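User: Hey, my collaborator sent me this sequence without any context and asked if I could get a structure. I don't really work with proteins. Can you help?
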Amino acid sequence: MDSLAQVAIFLAAAVVAVPLFRFLRLSSILGYIAAGLIIGPWGLGLISDVDAILHDAEFGVVLLLFVIGLELQPTRLWVLRRTVFGLGSAQVLLCTAALAAAAWLTGLGPAAAVTVGFGLSLSSTALVLQVLAERGQLKMQHGRAAFGILLFQDLAVLPALAVLPLLSPDGGGAPASGRWWVGLASLIAVIVAIVVGGRVLLRPALRLVARIRSAEVFTAAALLTVIGTSLAVSKVGLSMALGAFMAGVLLADSEFRHELEADIEPFKGLLLGLFFIAVGMSANLGLLLSEPLTVVAVTAAVLAIKTVAVALLGKLAHLSADAAWRLGFALPAGGEFAFVLFTLAAREHILTGPTADVLVLAVTLSMMVGPLIASAYELTLHRLFAPAAAPEFDAIDERDNRVIIAGFGRFGQIVARVLRARRIAFTALDVSQTHVDFVRRFGNKVYYGDASRLDLLRAAGCESADIFVLAIDDVEASVRTAQLVRTQFPDLRLFARARSRQHAFALMEAGVEYIIRETYLSSLEMAEMILQALGTAPAEARSAVRKFRRHDEQTLLEQFAVKDDEEKMIAATRESAHQLEKLFEADAAAPGGQRRVLEKAQGAGD
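Assistant: No problem. I've predicted the 3D structure and written it out in structure-token form, which is a compact way to encode the shape of the chain:
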């Protein structure tokens, strides 16, 4: 069958199966897998060369990880480090130990049991992330934890491939151990090349392509970026998906982020669908007919052990009961890497051929059943663990106020009290129902609502207001709201409160011009009082504080320009401190300067 006919079959199967499953309120991934079962060797037999299709379709997973990388700025990735290396490593170790123990009890040897345990402990990155994205749960507590675990699993692939030959009873470990240092050096070299190349070469190259103003050429450049990075990483044994993820992270804070995502999205969707169709076609349903009890028992054991183990780890990681169980039901299915691992293990004679076939089929079935049991949890048990449903947001009846205050904590309340004293009407929003109920008892007009939602901002009258005061406590929600306001209401002047210097950087990046760090002005006021208490004249103390404030605000701008370069950031901070020291030394040495005043004060005290 020619390739064009195969493409027509794939498209027809997807067009029929996916809408049907979506109509039944099931995941589209199940539709793709079902389509693969129907057209594959154990169905209608329309497609036979499954391995080649599965290999090509894995590029969809590569594109998925690239798009996810684009959405993760390096600062956010650094925040996830505990989840990736803490929760991720704990999941792999605990699930490997539990599944290996179960395999050993069935009669497998230690090496075979560990191989089976590790292979089954991994989950499908494409499957889990796609299901979470469909449900809008990627940014929820369990969604972030699932992403961190999946990222660590991708990192664990390389050591697994290096150790596997060492477990072979044929003595294949000797040459592999001799190449260990070469492989590690190659890995480090490629990672350094990707990071340096992404910073030094990739962005200038994309700027040059963008100047041509040809959408087709820019799309080609985007695909070349993904393919080139993935191939480079695959040469040293890492997964192509991990290389694509690294490239996405490097471009996450570039001006091309949204353009790249829009160009890649159509290719990603089609190839991911093809990947799941290929997974369905690869299932050896003959084993399900010849050894049904064995296959079902293995599949059920994998799903049960991983669900309970991951949910337990979620609780130990201080997730809520509902989030922990959602995490457990998100990750029970096997992953596509198990196909590769079990095939290699059979080739190295660590596993027998029939055992590997049963495991591959069990992984395939778990990928089919996994989204179903997650949906069942959402429909049934979720109600037992979920907190009480939050009340609906208030309907806002004031739309003509000039000022809107988002976040009615201590900071927002002080602003509101000053406005009320001047008889300036305002609309206040806060996402905490308890907080809203409390402040209303004192006569404040506050509405319960999430200011990061566009529909609520429009209802609050952002289109006609003059000032938007951003006083939200949560940093991520604050930045998200700032980005939304700047994008949707560009004429609305935005005054923001920042909890820290990094928060201020994020707000500046979102386009906010008026920023106050919450403890900054009070600290300066206390510094002025301390200078006066030490004997400095009031006018001189005020001058010193004003001079420090001007210098610090200039330093903030300089640091913002190099915030993504750690070395330049450190250099800018040291240079700023040196300049400030010189500035005050010059003032103190001047006639009538601060030093003489302090000396007189100390002399009087003595």
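In plain terms: The chain has a mean pLDDT of 76. You can pass these tokens on to your collaborator as they are.
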